[in-house]
Design a protein that fits this description.
The chain is an alpha+beta fold. The protein has two helices and two strands. It has a two-stranded antiparallel sheet with strand order 1-2.
């Protein structure tokens, strides 16, 4: 891959990271298991990042695209 393609990929990823600043995933843990009775606990785990990371990726992508214009 040349620098221009990598720059476009960074711009797209940066834009996505600016608008979606995180996501959640759920894990299930078995708390009680007594014969036919089973109790599960679901835990919500957020993953967050700053929108500034997206801006930095966009700027880096623009620099790569402009640099590889030759």
């Amino acid at each position: 891959m040349n620098a221009k393609n990598i720059g476009f990929v960074l711009i797209i990823i940066g834009a996505i990271m600016m608008f979606y600043t995180g996501f959640n995933y759920v894990t299930t843990e078995k708390v009680v298991d007594i014969g036919p009775i089973e109790i599960n606990k679901q835990t919500n785990n957020p993953v967050q990042w700053s929108p500034i990371v997206g801006v930095v990726l966009i700027i880096g992508g623009v620099v790569l695209v402009v640099k590889d214009k030759n």
